[in-house]
Design goal:
The chain has helices at residues 14-28, 66-69, 117-123, 138-151, 167-175, 191-204, 221-225, 233-244, 294-314, 322-328, 338-349; strands at 5-10, 49-56, 90-92, 128-131, 154-157, 179-182, 208-218, 253-260, 267-278, 282-293, 319-320. The chain is an alpha/beta fold. The strands form two sheets. The protein has a seven-stranded parallel beta sheet, with helices on both faces. The structure holds nicotinamide-adenine-dinucleotide (NAD).
Length: 355
């Protein structure tokens, strides 16, 4: 068994729940590798991921053991594993702009005292902080990134507030000699990786793409929060830039979260449309519907990102981890087609590539 990877998690929503349940499931069933992109990454297996600290603001989660908080309301993803008591209590972080006007109708902030996040990170000897705050939490994300910097630990940014892709933040992490990767996790087989790969295929095969759109609906708090268009600017930039980078000409496109349908829970439904012209200027039209359980789709990649960042920590690398970011995130410092990004990531973890 490899060494442990000590992670702290900001927010115990559906994505954290799927990550923790999945890591537990694969720990208990080491013969079952279905759904993992790789069982062993840089010497680390899913069972090596250990949660040592967790922060949230919801009164349903703060003060509970992580194993209970991941099943607390309003989380509504599916259950794949019963997680035993972990001996890690969810602590109250500062709310700042984390709870927007929609989430605020559902989540009641805990009355517990806010903790000193940097101190908790140090006391628990966390090696990296995984950020899962809600979309639009610009100030709270910057706060957590700063806490990681001051505690001297790595930072993985699963959400579309730009940290790993911002030169100013890259420099701040490089100055502290710690690694950062992000931004905005690109799910294992989700809307973005499918859409960008299809656009690349159309362009490579000589089709002139006249236009494309991607509509997404879901029934969880992530989608409820994203009804607030004011919180969505970076999300639209992140999702659109990933697809845009696959063509060397401007394609009219509209991409983003589209609606909240409460009874579909954590299922996410995505509709992709691509229209263009091939040989003889003959029209071609593709309509695709993709249905996934959103949180597990993100966890399938975060389990790789965490192990990749740990490899970076072991090698004492610092600043923006470019191949981890290109493979695991929608808005990385360097945007790459999917196959190139996967190759870069695997070369990085195998030690054939610097970062
Ligand atoms: N496939 C995916 O699910 C996917 C893909 C890309 C990005 N993301 C992003 O990952 C993030 C997490 O998604 P999720 O579905 O787990 O969200 P969620 O809505 O289920 O959970 C958000 C959690 O944040 C907590 N919170 C709010 N403000 C806080 C603060 N200031 N400090 C600490 N906790 C706070 C809430 O109480 C809640 O527990 C979202 O930003 C989402 O857009 C998810």
């Amino acid at each position: 068994m490899g060494k442990k990877i000590r992670i702290a998690i900001a927010c115990l929503g559906n994505c954290a729940s799927a990550l923790i349940q999945g890591a537990h499931y694969y720990s208990k069933n080491p013969q079952d590798t279905v759904g993992l992109t790789a069982y062993n990454i840089g010497g680390y297996e899913p069972r090596d991921v250990e949660v040592v600290a967790a922060f949230d603001v919801a009164d349903t989660k703060v003060g509970k053991d992580v194993s209970e908080a991941i099943f607390a309301r309003p989380n509504n993803t599916i259950t794949v594993a019963q997680v035993p008591q972990m001996g890690v209590t969810v602590q109250r972080g500062p709310a700042m702009d984390g709870v927007g006007r929609h989430l605020g109708q559902i989540v009641t902030p805990s009355k517990d005292q806010e903790v000193d996040v940097k101190k908790v990170l140090k006391d628990t000897e966390a090696e990296m902080l995984v950020n899962y705050l809600p979309v639009g939490s610009t100030n709270a994300v910057r706060y957590y990134a700063t806490q990681a910097l001051e505690a001297g630990i790595g930072f993985l940014n699963a959400i579309p507030v730009f940290i790993a892709s911002e030169p100013k933040w890259q420099q701040a992490f490089a100055d502290k000699k710690i690694p950062v990767a992000g931004d905005d996790v690109m799910s294992q087989l989700g809307a973005t990786v499918v859409h960008k790969t299809l656009i690349k295929l159309f362009v490579d095969r000589g089709v002139l793409v006249d236009g494309t759109y991607q509509l997404n609906i879901g029934g969880d708090m992530d989608f409820y929060n994203m009804l607030d268009e004011e919180r969505l600017e970076d999300k639209r930039i992140s999702k659109t830039s990933a697809v845009k980078a696959m063509a060397d000409y401007d394609i009219p496109m509209r991409i983003g979260p589209s609606d909240y349908v409460d009874f579909i829970d954590n299922e996410k439904i995505c509709y992709i449309n691509i229209e263009g012209k091939y040989f003889g200027k003959i029209p071609i039209k593709l309509d695709l519907k993709l249905k996934v359980i959103d949180a597990y789709n993100s966890a399938g990649i975060m389990i790789d990102a965490i192990r990749g960042l740990k490899v970076g920590l072991d090698r004492k690398l610092y600043g923006a981890m470019t191949s981890i970011s290109s493979y695991c995130f929608k808005h990385p410092p360097i945007q790459m087609p999917y196959t190139e990004a996967k190759k870069a990531f695997m070369e990085f973890v195998e030690g054939k590539r610097d970062r």
